[in-house]
Amino acid sequence: MLTKKVALISDIHSNIEALEAVLSDIDKQGIIDICCLGDIIGYGPNPREVLRRALQWQFSIRGNHEEGLLYTPFDFNADAIKALDWTRTELNSEDCSKDENFSLWNFLGDLGDIQEENDVMYVHASPRSRTREYIMPFDIKDEDTMRELFSLVNRLCFCGHTHLPGVFTEDFRFYLPSMVDNVFVPKDGKKFIINIGSVGQPRDRDLRASYVVFDGEKITFHRVEYDYKKTMQKIVDTKKLPLRFAERLAFGR
After folding, report:
1. Residue range 6-250, CATH number
2. 156, 192 in Cβ contact below 8 A?
3. Alpha-carbon torsion 12, 17, 23, 25, what sign?
4. Which spans of this chain does the record mark as coiled coil (predicted)?
């Protein structure tokens, strides 16, 4: 059971600098419950470190990158598969104890693909395809798709996956956080799908890490600066991870 105020994070992608900055910002607000909507790993240079943090959270959900790591990667590009292969090697490192390796793999294997609290749903991607479907802002033009998605939502659905924060309404509108002054109050009797953005690899041309605070009544979007140049250099230093995963952090795309 969650407390009244919860911090929602997603798509960390092994970026410990972004995660630590977000966790510090959450701590300053006195928020205890932290929930992650998937893609803890993938792309970035610190999978072990972010997973260690994840062990302490209220709950985490399986994303497509966790699925790709645990099973055969499906619908991943070659660079993303390289990152998963490198991550797999890191999580089996002989430089770390077998007990810790087992603990991290066990955590990943136990992740579910949905969490529900009363009339609120938490998934990685969408209510229809919980780990894979992208709900993009332009999808509001596809009314049949939106109707089907909202038919699966009781009241609120929080998700990540696209790395693009914002609010979808059942009357086929999409609101960027800036369009609601970063605070959205869901109307009673209406349904909403809320994308909380990405902690570790933002793609809305804003370099800052993104997360959401939900207090049961309002949804607040937060952005936090972090040392992205440090993360970029770590990716380069692995000599294994594709360089474009470093470069995109400097542009937020």
Report:
1. 3.60.21.10
2. yes
3. negative
4. none
Listed in sequence order, the residues at least 6 apart from 21 whose beta carbon sits closer than 8 Å to its beta carbon are: 209, 224, 225, 226, 227
Q: Where are the domains of the chain?
A: 6-250
Single pTM value for the model:
0.96
Q: Does residue 243 register a pLDDT over 70?
A: yes
At residue 1, does pLDDT exceed 80?
Answer: no
Both structure tokens of 34: 């932290």
Whether residue 243 contacts residue 235, with contact meaning beta carbons closer than 8 Å, is answered with yes
Per-residue tokens: 102: 């087992």
Cβ(150)–Cβ(193) below 8 Å: yes
Helices (H), 36-189: 47-54, 64-70, 78-91, 98-109, 143-151
**Separation CA 65–CA 168 (nearest Å):** 24
